[in-house]
Specification:
Helix content is 53%, strand content 7%. It contains 19 helices and seven strands. The longest helix is centred in the first third of the chain and has 32 residues.
Length: 403
Amino acid sequence: MIISKTNKTSNIAIKLAALALAGKKLESIPYPEEEMKAVFDYVKNTKTASITFMAIENAVEEDKLFDEDSFYFEWKKLRLNSYRRNLLFDKETNAILKYMDENGIWFMPLKGAILKHFYPSPDVREMNDVDILYDRTKRDEMDAFMKSRGYRVWMHHYSKDRDDETGDLTKGDNADEYVKDPFLYFELHKYLIEESYSPEFAKYYANVPDSLVKDENNNCGYHFTDEEFYIYLFVHAHKHFTRNGIGIRFLMDVCVYLNSHPDLNLKYIEKICDENGIGTFERDVRSVALKMFDLDSEVSEESLEKSEWNLFDSMIGADNFGNLETRWKNQVYELDAEGEVSKGKYLKSRLFPDEKWYRIYHPFVYKHKIVKPFFTIYRLTVLAFRGRKNVKKEMDQVGGKDA
């Protein structure tokens, strides 16, 4: 396990998750009540409450599990809710995929819908939504079907500007999002990755489904090879990482997947990730994930590579999909991967961002470069008059290097 000097709460949460992943349970709670309350708040925010409850369910006094004023009661409820959510997600997913299969619409479930089956129990991998890649030429048909099942459009990036022959959209995001009470949330993906995030990976995935493997138990389903599933897991995670960050559930996903697929072709994975700009990120995450949940070792800050520690420190401080401070830390991490980062270098990168920054955060400015000087003046004005406290906090993430 990786031990943080400053974050005792995350240390305990990681220990509980590692125990559960190893199929072990505590016989008694070795931590004070106030520390466990902090751990509960942490695992709730990082979407790891269900897996960590597995480690303590036999150790908590029974009266606390049934006391509505106890945080242990709330912890148990999150575990049961995860079980219920997974059941309902499975039911809806099966209905949606059955419709696609019977109507000649090719499809491929993504990310958590597949990952959860490699956990000790599928329902301990908490699900926010279900992602499905499908034949985007059938978009209107799927829109009508989802609405017929009681879903409403959440963020329907719909555009009538499309190629009449292929159905390819010329505008819009990479997925249409549908929600239904009490919590069902489906993303139907037209593309795997937006060009605004990564032109390299948008090109890499341009020929899907040609590169996919046909399922054996249905008519229209496909899946990635094990290596390509792992690569896409990182592509999607890196998008969140470069925006607001990503939390420890992703590290757990990586650990679980690697341990359940010991024969992955890592040389191939490294080659593809290096060629498309996320090689350092993949290697650091892989190293951190395997060390983080290893019960047989204790790893300190000093024994990690600097980039590994920076990444670990960012992820244990993030919620499930990060926050503003983790975004700052991750920008330092990305700069540091290119060489020793200093406050001067970091400040220059923030005042005068590169084209990738504009492409991800401000695509309008990226596409209409004539407005860039005016936008720069606007940013500097906002920083000077409204964001000085945040600027100080942000610069503190760089550390003490001033040169």
